[in-house]
Amino acid sequence: MNLGDLLHDRATHFPQVTALFCQDQSLAYSDLDTTTASLAQWFLRQGFKPGDRIAIHWPNSIEAVQLCFAIFKAGLIAVPMNLRLKPAEIAWILENSGATLCFSHPALADAMRQTGIEVRSALPDTTGQPVDLTAISDETPALILYTSGSTGRPKGAIHTHHSLISTARTSTRELVETYGTGNGDRGLMFTPMMHASGLYVLLGSLWLGQACVLLPLFDPAAVLDAIERYRCSLTMTLPALMQFILEEQIRRPRDVRSLKLIFAGGDTVPVALQDRVREIMGVEMLEGLAQTETGPAIANPMHATRAGSIGVVQQGVEVRVVDPEGHAVADNQAGELLVKSPANCIGYWNNPEATAEALQDGWFRTGDLVSRDADGYYWFRGRLKEIIIRGGSNISPQEVEEALYSHPEILEAGVVGMPHAVWGEQVVAFVALREGGSVDEEGVRTHAARHLADYKVPEKVHFMPVLPKGATGKVHRKALKDHLISQQPL
């Protein structure tokens, strides 16, 4: 089964069930199936061939979902874009993916046009001679999700129809096994489609033949209002966002009794936060581990949650915990987590070196350090890589450093992540100025903001006469982090 088949099956069985709600608009499964088939035919009439990439630069909306599934049905590959990126960041992803057309929301289209790509800011008129849709294997690539690594530019994780359907099945299994399924249940998607957590809710709702409520942008009040208005049953979030939702619920309580499950991942979920959500909202907040490349791999069971752990291995998923030589470690010993799952991506777009490093014999190297206890629960112990995760978003230290190096007065730059009570980690920069340089912290941050999305801009900047170096002459990020922890002179 491919994603187009899945949608058509749900439309056949639940034609009048609402598939999507968004800002007082709604669309039934039968209409979503029909409109996406017409859009898919439009793509083929324009001469697009299987495997061509189409970028989507649009907030969560009915239009964005229609575009995505039309691309799937036509055998093309969707490239959802992070709306917070600046033109230079967008241009790199477009160049790397080879996308030749972008659908960009009217309010965002000017930034996209600066890249030189063909931009459409409205869905096309789909009237025209019908075109037969080509049969699509479930192993066909369907989606490229760009995620920042610990070094260099973002990498595009390639997901097939099969891996995305496997993601949908895995992300909803706990809900189904506990409560069964019902078309009256509704998922709430308030993180963007380019972020894995938003995609899990959308695909999970489709898998269950239920409605998905879409919020264009994250706003704590809007999240709670939507839960109350639409009686949402399921949502997935990031710990930092959940903090804001909880504070809003305390400030002005809504009726959230319809919630059956809040899944949280993308970063460590504090036990204190889980306790407060249970106390104030009356729902279990389940911590788990899911990456853009793997889908949900480990999660706490709904009625056997072990606070502080990331849970147990999900059905159909295999994991290993290994030392640097690849040998399995004993229980309660930390090692790198490897994941083999039907939801794994098949590699990184146009990046065979990164693919070979990350995927070995079907096992994906997560770069996360975990341990396993005697009962089969896993515990997060840190990151093998230096990637910074702020509010669930991956930030490459090297990418931020490159932006800082473009300032004419900065001689050296080093960027690290440090713990933050709300965002999980914050971006901290160290810089050494050229002789005669006089730029201050605000000047450095302003310069960075011209080149980077807001969430990548360093919250703090420390000035040093010279930055510590490793044996190869590279700036030693670990020494910088250790300096912040100890506050001892380098």
Walk me through what this model shows.
The structure is a single chain. This protein is α/β, with parallel strands linked by helices. The chain folds into two domains: 3-378, Rossmann fold, CATH 3.40.50; 388-486, ANL, C-terminal domain (GMP Synthetase, Chain A, domain 3, 2-Layer Sandwich), CATH 3.30.300.30. It is 33% helix and 26% strand. The chain has 14 helices and 25 strands. The chain has helices at 3-13, 29-45, 62-73, 87-97, 109-113, 161-179, 196-208, 220-230, 239-251, 271-281, 352-358, 397-405, 441-451, 477-486, and strands at residues 18-22, 25-28, 53-57, 77-80, 101-104, 118-120, 141-147, 155-160, 186-189, 211-214, 234-237, 261-264, 285-291, 295-299, 312-313, 318-322, 335-340, 359-360, 363-372, 378-383, 388-390, 393-395, 410-420, 424-433, 460-463. The strands form six sheets. A nine-stranded mixed sheet has the order 2-1-10-9-11-12-13-14-15, sandwiched between helices. Strands 16, 17, 18, 19 and 20 form a five-stranded antiparallel sheet that branches. Strands 4-3-5-6 form a four-stranded parallel sheet. Strand 3, helix 3 (62-73) and strand 4 (77-80) form a beta-alpha-beta unit. Helix 1 (3-13) runs antiparallel to helix 2. The N and C termini lie far apart (58 Å). The mean pLDDT is 92.
